[in-house]
Amino acid sequence: MSGVFSPGRAKIKERTLRTDKWWIEPAITFGVLFSFIIYATFRAFENANYFAEPLISPFYSPCLSTACQDGASLIGQPIGTLAIFGMVISPALFILIFPLGFRMTCYYYRKAYYRSFWLSPPACAVAEPHEKYTGETRAPLIMQNAHRWFFYAGLVFNVLLTIDAVLAFRGPVSEGSEVMEWGHMSVGTLVLLLNATLLWGYSASCHTCRHTIGGRLKHFSKHPFRYKLWTRVSILNHYHQQFAWVSLFGVAFADIYVRTVSIHPSLNFYFF
Amino acid sequence: MTRKLNLRIWRGDATDGALQDVVVEANEGEVVLDVIHRVQATQMGDLAVRWNCKAGKCGSCSMEINGKPRLACMTQVASYGDDETITVTPLRAFPVIKDLVTDVSFNYRKAMEIPAYEHPKDLAPGDARMEQIDVERSQEFRKCIECFLCQDTCHVIRDHEENKKSFAGPRFFIRIAELDMHPLDMLKNRKRTAQEEHGLGMCNITKCCTEVCPEHIKITDNAIIPMKERVVDIKYDPARMFAGLLKRDKRN
């Protein structure tokens, strides 16, 4: 017997004496994250309905494979068309490791999924079910220290998705035309802009951003500009959890929207 | 207004014990420590409870109230429903001595293991000066009243007794952070020892320490995560790796 049942500790048979509904938060977190994982997996393997010029789904951008739909590749196609057992590998699978890695190693999501998926612990002062615990000191969880690598990669993705949003200010010359010209804006433009904005918010509020921008300093007073930046990022950092959730919903919504428009192009309403 | 309150108090010692029900009067505005004292005065003369300031500043009356680590002197009886039974137990991460009193000496041993501040050799005592913005950062950590509620709720030791050997706990991570962020601290390897000797890597950021802190210190966001990031600086930072700068910084 270990943990709260260890010899010498107060002999109480309950794993927790909490009387509030402590299980609601991890249950909701589990439900939402699991739903996203199912949807994202389906979309990553679907390999279709991700491009409706000028809109591209964030799950498939940048599209780096020669298997990408015409016009969907923003920065070229350095990866050929690869196949396993005759099935073409979806272009999404070449890139999703980066945003996935960024979120998996995120300090907020760590709290969320350690509590809701791994029950370590399920809630504060609620005994966890595991016999042993070594934290993030050995493989595979020591890989959480790669968060900074994914943070830098995430910034590159933010730039590319922002360019996608800018490119969405194009529109067809006339109804049904495939020729695009600048100076148009549709609902899809707003959706991609919103998605890029939320992703920038998520990155800017990140603990690693807060650290690299100024948190690592020993003397704030010797670096007044970085100190000022640090105070601004610290304000954003306070809302990192909220940014984590809304940006996740933003990505899913942008993908759903692009998928819908790619199937029914007439649904993308143009303001001008 | 006075009302009857149903209280369940854990009574016993390291060998055995049980929750005992008691009905006690509670007056408007009283805190849980008040009604425990009333029980002690009227019904259980030998009830052991540790307390001191009754103002949330000494950290003595730490216990678990309805399963949550809290200060009894800062927990209003009125925050519970009229028909609700309030269950009071000792801290469950530490050995119990008697009734609501636990042996928290684990924390004092850990405190002794944290290397102290090291003053610059070329700076005479009294000549040190700090700017306010440098002071403010660690001032937050100095609010700690050493109630050890964060230590009690941390599942690393609460749920795994064997980890007490290698894990200092959140209270001492804020101490390490405070020193590491001190502009004049000259101790080498503070980050590395935080990771390798004091168990910083065992923390999985579930933020329970922050949730229970009565001083509202942002333990995770302002101390533990910054320390984890400082460890990344010296051990896992890609920019430093690529630049070949991973060799130990003299002040790390």
Q: What structural class should be given to the helix and strand makeup of chain A?
A: mainly alpha
What's the domain count of chain A?
1
Q: What would the principal axes of the Cα set say about the shape of chain B?
A: elongated
Determine the CATH topology of the largest domain in chain B: Fumarate Reductase Iron-sulfur Protein, Chain B, domain 2
Head-to-tail CA distance between termini of chain A: 69 Å
What is the number of strand segments of chain A?
6
Total number of beta strands of chain B: 7
Class per helix and strand makeup of chain B: alpha+beta
**Shape field of chain A:** globular
User: What series of H and E elements makes up the topology of chain A?
Assistant: HEEEEHHHHEEHHHH
Main beta sheet strand tally, sense and closure of chain B? 5 strands, mixed
CATH class of the largest domain in chain B: Mainly Alpha
Describe the biggest sheet of chain A? Answer: 2 strands, antiparallel
| SSE sequence of chain B, one letter per element | EEHEEEEEHHHHHHHHH
Average pLDDT metric of chain B = 94
Provide the spatial order of strands within the biggest beta sheet of chain B: 2-1-5-3-4
- Number of alpha- plus pi-helical segments of chain A: 9
Overview of this protein structure:
The complex is a heterodimer of chains A (272) and B (252). Chain A has one domain. In chain A, 48% of the residues lie in helices and 5% in strands. Chain A has nine helices and six strands. In chain A, the strands form three sheets. Chain A has a two-stranded antiparallel sheet with strand order 1-2. In chain A, strands 3-4 form a two-stranded antiparallel sheet. A two-stranded antiparallel ribbon of chain A has the order 5-6. In chain A, a hairpin with a 2-residue loop joins strand 1 and strand 2 (55-56). In chain A, helix 1 packs across helix 4 and helix 3 packs across helix 5. Chain B has a five-stranded mixed β-sheet. A two-stranded antiparallel ribbon of chain B has the order 6-7. In chain B, helix 3 (132-142) runs antiparallel to helix 6 and helix 7 crosses helix 9 (219-235). The relative contact order of chain B is 0.12. By secondary structure, chain B is an alpha+beta fold. In chain B, 34% of the residues lie in helices and 15% in strands. Chain B folds into two domains: 2-102, Beta-grasp domain (Ubiquitin-like (UB roll), Roll), CATH 3.10.20; 105-242, Fumarate Reductase Iron-sulfur Protein, Chain B, domain 2. Chains A and B meet through helix 4, helix 5 and helix 7 of A and strand 2, helix 3, helix 5, helix 8 and helix 9 of B.
